[in-house]
Amino acid sequence: MVARERTGQSDYQEERIDPRARFAQMEGPLSEKLYAQMRLIRRFEEQLLERFDRGLLVGTTHAYIGQEADAVGVINHLRAGDVVFSNHRCHGHYLVWGDKPEALAAELMGRAGGLVGGRGGSQHICDGGFYTNGIQGGIVPGALGLSLAKRVRGEDAVAVVFIGDGTLGQGVLYECLNMASLWGAPLLVVLEDNGWAQSTPSHREVAGSMLERARAFGMEAGAIESTDAEAIYTHFEGIIEEVRQSVRPRLEVIHTYRLCHHSRSDDHRPAEEIEARRADDPLPKQRQRVSEERARAIEEAVEARLFEAFEAAEAQAQPAVEQLDDPLLRGMPGPQT
Amino acid sequence: MSQTVLESLNQALHRMMQTDERVHLIGEDLLDPYGGAFKVSRGLSTAFEDRVWTTPISEAGFVGVAIGMAMGGLLPVVEIMFGDFVLLAADQLINHGAKYAWIYNEKVDVPLVVRLPMGGRRGYGPTHSQTLEKHFLGAPGLAIVATNPFVDSGRLLETATRYDRRPVLFVENKKMYARRQRPIQGGRCEAMDARVSPGPYPSVSLSFGSFEMADVTLVAYGGMAELAVEAAERLLIEDERYCEVVMPTSIQPLEMDAIAQSVARSGHLVVAEESPGAGGFGAEVISALPAAAWAALRAQPQRVSALNLPIANSTALEAATLPDVDDLLAAMRRVLPTAASRSATG
């Protein structure tokens, strides 16, 4: 088998997804746009969990319920050419980035028309500069490498990697903070501190200061404690531009809360704690900024869109087993020169 | 005089960086005047300052960075100082780099090369002398290529870097760096008949007689290649038996054609590797033999490998642990029982 030589940069292509431009083109004021996106994420996750309960999906899923303000606050500032590396809890990030609930639903249901043809499922998706993997901490080097490749190629792009408080236990993260600072990488590490690493509370897994960990490497670091989408959106607007302009890495912590279980049926958190945090639910907070009439219109549109998305996904075929092949054989290079 | 393996690799890196600006070199202590622990990277940081990334001691981190760079359109070559340290990057290689092209449904390539100086016989002790690539055998999406002095090591590295779209573990052997390459010309390599299989990562077959006369097939790769040739020469001199040495460079996927054809001719098989044998290369070769080769076998295949122990610092203990020419000869005599009797009577 003869494969083509890797020549020039022409064979590196990605779909040009531009969340910032799409967000700018959405109708209505900021409050409505943010609410519409968050409502889409919330209802997507709820419908997903409901389908799990009905046995329509296999494996596991890590819902984003309660953290929607982070995704809309960060990713709406990213533009074509930027990179997101996300993690096991990636649906919310992706829906803001790619805005394709039908392709995401198909992927989660293991269908041929899914984002990666049913190969990746919930934790391993890819779409035009958006990548995820299910290994805690292991995604950070890849994000750093992508940010450096962009810099080398002369693009003024930013790479954003989403980690959680649990990721702070992973050594490879610190290797990367060190190299990112040494080498001047346009990398933004967004740490979504939702208080729990699966079933382990932060105070049992994180010693010392989250911010000082980054600052020890000479990085800028900051934090916002909020579930207010508009506050987070405003907070990150300048930060992402600063990373882009300065070509320096930065760590930004969002102290938030996960209102749902970690994955499925594994929640042993104190019920009173969860109850207390429902007051911080970002969704009703944002809904209050929207007129009742507009809110209802948005909700109806979201329901219709998700109904179609899941229906279309369910109607799709499973991927053809014939496409299972050996990448080693397929990837053999051409003849030696 | 031919080049040493070290010179061949170093010149290939210079050549590639000169002709393709996507090639970047990443690893520890790469800057001149040091130029890397085994000097394969010498001169590169002087000539290509912006494309040689000398790193902190962070194998998982910088292998992962190289994966990201490869996804981002560059052609990174990583140098692991001692191949032993690649285990620190196993998660990056197996759970990240090797998987991405497939799980992302071929939306990305990861054209990465990770160079691994492997092997003992230099007294570096238990954590700096191992041959560990067998632990990566069977990781889907990861190619393993091992060079030896009978191929052009630099061209092999160039193929892996510029032409291969997969992540490639490129296995070098520390003892081999100072050895001169032993080129094959006109079907001959010095006093031996030689065959080179087609394809980007050739298998080289050598014989002191004609290939049709082979009594036994000895399969060896990497650092075992020259020992195997030495054993073949001694088998001829001492036992008057012919050994065909087959040296694959594509370890994963395992290139079996030349091996299978030789076994079909010789009817006897010995497989050699520098690592402990369990779960390793030799087991793969034997189990991958096609039916025709199995049918030709007239004795149970033999496996030569290191003792299942860490590698000691002491020269005597290290030598006893690693397989040597005597071990190869003994194994060939086990599969060739008449040879032993002839030797005893002769």
TrEMBL record, chain A:
Its cofactor is thiamine diphosphate. Gene3D superfamilies: 3.40.50.970. InterPro entries: DH_E1, PDH_E1_Alpha_Subunit, THDP-binding. It comes from Lujinxingia sediminis. This is Thiamine pyrophosphate-dependent dehydrogenase E1 component subunit alpha. Signal peptide: none annotated. It holds the Pfam family E1_dh. Residues 37-321 form the Dehydrogenase E1 component domain.
UniProtKB/TrEMBL annotation, chain B:
SMART domains: Transket_pyr. Its cofactor is thiamine diphosphate. It comes from the Bacteria. The keyword Cytoplasm does not apply. Keywords: Oxidoreductase, Thiamine pyrophosphate. Pfam families: Transket_pyr, Transketolase_C. Residues 3-179 form the Transketolase-like pyrimidine-binding domain. The keyword Oxidoreductase applies. This is Alpha-ketoacid dehydrogenase subunit beta. It comes from Lujinxingia sediminis.
